[in-house]
Amino acid sequence: xxxxxxxxxxxxxxxxxxxxxxxxxxxxxxxxxxxxxxxxxxxxxxxxxxxxxxxxxxxxxxxxxxxxxxxxxxxxxxxxxxxxxxxxxxxxxxxxxxxxxxxxxxxxxxxxxxxxxxxxxxxxxxxxxxxxxxxxxxxxxxxxxxxxxxxxxxxxxxxxxxxxxxxxxxxxxxxxxxxxxxxxxxxxxxxxxxxxxxxxxxxxxxxxxxxxxxxxxxxxxxxxxxxxxxxxxxxxxxxxxxxxxxxxxxxxxxxxxxxxxxxxxxxxxxxxxxxxxxxxxxxxxxxxxxxxxxxxxx
Length: 298
Fold this sequence. Notes:
Layout: H1 7-27, H2 29-32, E1 35-36, E2 43-44, H3 62-89, H4 91-100, H5 109-127, H6 130-140, H7 145-157, H8 159-177, H9 185-213, H10 219-229, H11 232-244, H12 250-285, H13 287-290
Antiparallel strand pairs: 1-2
Helix pairs in contact: 3-4, 4-9, 4-11, 5-8, 5-9, 6-7, 6-10, 8-9, 8-12, 9-10, 11-12
């Protein structure tokens, strides 16, 4: 018994250590236990897999659904409102930060463009009744109402697709104009998404309220408001690119923007010629069907 007495303190310390480890394992098992990822079979030691990024397995229950709803609603709204505020304050700075890597708090710029274009489309056609206004305007100008109805139906049905088509085209023009200033084509897609988002926001909070005030005036007045609002685009472009390329002089930015506008006009003329040629080809092949688009003279 006397020979075992020196071992008692050691046994006591070991017992305490075992009890403490058991308590830790019970209260916080994630720090002492690991498991394999259900997606790639990699060992997970934290809350997420270091290989594929999947969250550690948790059985789907009430708390899981509640956490997912909180993350989806609050995180999405926070990112959307944060980006909306920053785009409105300074779109060029916001785009520069996103392209330079500060992205965690921002809403995805292309998705932002789709959301805003959807809101703008709803306000334009459901609140302002722009389709009816344009039809009345074209009737005053003796343009076929049937053609107008079909065109407006196409634009209202495929507005998001049209936005998707416009961004790559505008990105091509800005890439050509700013080709020596150090950004690739895909970064220019992001830039143009921010530019289009800013223009849409300005339209929603300024242009559309003005149009709503004059909603019951003549169609020519509404078309004039729409036309004059387009003059905001060169100003927005100059401001955006001057902030984005803050080290460049204003004169150089203005010249680049003029080049962009020239390329857009050239692209519009080419597109118009293609549409006219296609229309003529369709007319020659289906002459009876195309007569419905020609206004009848009294």
